[in-house]
Structure formats: C-alpha cells, structure tokens
Amino acid sequence: MADGSKAGVTYTTVDVAYFEQRALKRHARVWSLWALGVGAVISGHFSGWNLGIASGGWGGMFIAAVIIAIMYLGLTFSIAEMSPALPHTGAAYSFARTTMGPWGGFITGLCENVEYVITPAVVVSFIGSYMGSIFGTPPAFQPVYWIFGYILFVGLNIAGVELSFRVTLVVTLAALACLVAFWVSALPVANFSRWALNIGVGPDGTAVELPNGGGPFLPFGLSGALAALPFAVWLFLAIEQLPLAAEESVDPKTDMPKGIMAGMATLIVSAFMILWLNSSVANGAFGLSTSLEPLLDGFKAIYGDGLARLLAFVAVIGLIASFHTIIYAQGRQIYSLSRAGYFPRGLSVTHGGRKTPHVAMIAGAIVGLVIMLGIWFALGAEAGAAAIGGTLLNMAVFGAMLSYVMQALSFILMRRNMPHIERPYKSPFGVPGAVLTIVIALVTIYFQLSDPIYRNGVLGVALWFAAGLAYFAAIGRHKLVLSPEEEFAMSGGKAEYKSY
Length: 500
What we know:
With 500 residues, the protein is mainly α. It has one domain: Up-down Bundle (Amino acid/polyamine transporter I), CATH 1.20.1740.10. It is built from 19 helices and 5 strands. The protein has a 3-stranded mixed sheet with strand order 1-2-5, with no helix packed on it. A hairpin with a 4-residue loop joins strand 1 (2-4) and strand 2 (9-12). Helix 2 crosses helix 7 (161-186). The chain is globular, with a radius of gyration of 22 Å.
C-alpha cells in the first residue's frame, strides 16, 4: 500500500500481472491519429452547427465559429505540448492528475466521461433518424437502429486496434470526400448575398425570411453571435480525444503533436467551407437555421429531391465516422480511469489476444443505450427523440467545456510548476493561449445556461457528477492503483514514465 493521505486517497501496489491483463498494442502513426481526430468531429459538419444561425444569423454564426476556433487552437496547442510530455492514455485525466492531484484528475476525468458516453448516444440517434427516412421505417423502430449501431461499431473496435484505425481512416476519408463533393457542387451556384443573408428581424424581434436576401450581416447584433457559441462548438467537438491514443501510438512524442495540428488544420478549412457554401445555396441561412439535415438540404437544393435517398446515405457516412471514433475514445477514457482505480478496476481488463479494452467499451455502450432507451420509453417516441437530440447533446457540450477549462488550467500549472519535464513540442500560444481557452469556454457555458434547454442538460450533468463524486468519496479514493500515470504524478514528473 502507498499512502496518499495528503489528498485523502490510498494506493495499492499491484504486480506485473495486473498490467499484463490491461496491456494495449501500439499501432497508430501520424495519419491514423489525424483520422481519429477528424473523424470524431466530422459529423458536426454534416449537422448541428447550423442551428446557431437561428441565434445570430449568418454573420453571428461566422463570428461564433471564429471565436470557437480560437478556443480550440488554444486547447489543441496546449494538448500538443502536454501529450508527448505526459504520454499516458488517460489524456485529460492524467494531465490534471499530474498538476492538480487525485481529486483534480478524477473531476476532469468525470467531465470527459460525460462527453464520451453521451456524444455517441446522440450521434447514433441521428444515424437512426437518417436510416428511418431511407428505409421508411416507423418511429418505433428507432431503438433497433441504435442497438445494431452499437453492436456493430463496438464490435469493430474490439476486433483489434489495427482494424479500428483502418476503419477510422476509411470512413473519415469518405466523409471528407462527401463534403468536398458538396463544395465543388455548390461553388458554381452559390449566391452569398441572396441566400446566406436572407434573415431579417421581425417586429417581435424574431427572425424573418427576406425573399430577396441582402439582409444585415449581424441581424441580432453581437449578442446573437455570442448566443451562437454553443452551436459553433459542434464544428470542433472531440478533436481533444487524440491523446487517449497515446499508449497505442508508435511514437507519441513526435506523432501526437503532428496528428493534432494536422487534424485541427483540416477541421478549420472544412468548418468555414461548409458554413459559407451550405448557406449560399437555395433555402439559404433561414432554411438551415431549423434544419436537422443541412448538408442533405444543400444537396437537394443543387440536385433536386430525386436523389434524396442516395444523398441521405452520403450524410450517414459522416455520422458513422464520428460514431466509430468516439466509441474508440469512450473505451480508452473509461479504461484509463479504471486501470488507475478511479472507476472499478474490472472495467480496464483488455482482450487477451486483441489487446483492446473490450470491457470498458461494452460498459460505456450499455450506459449510453440505457439512458437513450430510458428517455425513449419514458417520454414516448417523438418527445424522446427531441430530448436525446437536444438535452443529451447539451450535456455532452457542457461536460466538454468543463474539461477544457481543467485541461487549460493543467497546462498553465505544468508550465509554472514543472519546467523540468521534457517537452518534445512547445505550444507557440503558451500560457496566453490557455487563458484564452478558459475564458471562451466559460463564456460558452454562460450562454448555455441562458437557454432553458441547455439548463436541463446541465441538471443532467450535475446528477452525473453527484453520483460519480459520491462513488469516489466513499469507495474509489481508497482503491487507487500505482499505474504509470499515478507513479509519474506522485514523483512530481521526475520519474521516468513506464509503459506496460
């Protein structure tokens, strides 16, 4: 036993067999990491972001996207420095554990856990909606799509890290190809002034459609742009999952920063291309502001409704890319907290031959499905679908914003208190970039809280935190394990990091 009395925790020293049962396999290189990051986010370029137009008009959504892109640049540059310096699969949890102790590590891990358990549930519900429209199945059939989706993609992730990354690369490239095809199709017919600026403000202060376009850049002023911040998050949400692959990366010290920055560059280009061109074709910003299928609507505006079912398949590819990659992240996030004893240790056992965290992935999938099915049967098909696509989505964003604050704070503390740690990569934004990330994340949370739907999501996250903290206070803090990241943290970053 090792004493952590200053933090009120107790450690258990385990033998090598413990880690042999929890071994991972190294496979990922730069392009695998790039695909993992881009694939996790790409569904947000197919749908979700556009709802921010209702809050700020096209100009407000553009400003919100710029602000959120700055936040993610500050975050990803910070992560790009911390990840090779602390190459643990725990990612956000291990960053905070090293700089803020066990309680800080657990709280950060809990914030991220909300995001990675809830986000795939929301994405698979979108997949189900598309599949229902393609095959003409009744709303009551939706849970079948969800269950089948989880079984298929959890199974692919369990099958092996090599297959998982191959599938990730293929579906990510396919999703990007779909977006590029739309950009090429939209360029010849795009009319920005006519369609993107077709929102005005009615006498009651609500949005009205301007038949000939030419409306104001900021119909709802700067406050509208700030209100659109939570929706702009969907253009980049989950790029921060990349460090979860640190112990499956062949050379995390060099490949991880390259993968993160290449992924971020790709997403910035894609985000602003889709914001510009999707809004610049028929129906325009006003139509997109309430659309659940903006990319599909854009394709229909160009090619007509005759290809609707084929185009719906195109949209599903982007959702599949994100669902598959976030299932990967969900498993590694639960695995890392379990291996160190923060979650029940049995969750971190890996598959004997394939070396994938199958127990963690199955457990995360079951929790996500139970939440979805509970809402579905409690509220009924129509209200349940709205709650899954609204309240749960907002829970994921809120959890993410809190984890960004903690990760940026970890970066600041590491820079200040641990200058001796080797840093193969250094953030060009430094501490000011991390501070800016914290400020923007807190502003985004403020505007989440100003929306009643978002407040319902926050209540859900509060219940999640209460349950997690109660477990850790009563049980988890007395069952911590001297895992690689824990030993590294307890040494103040002076011990050599051990990988099993």
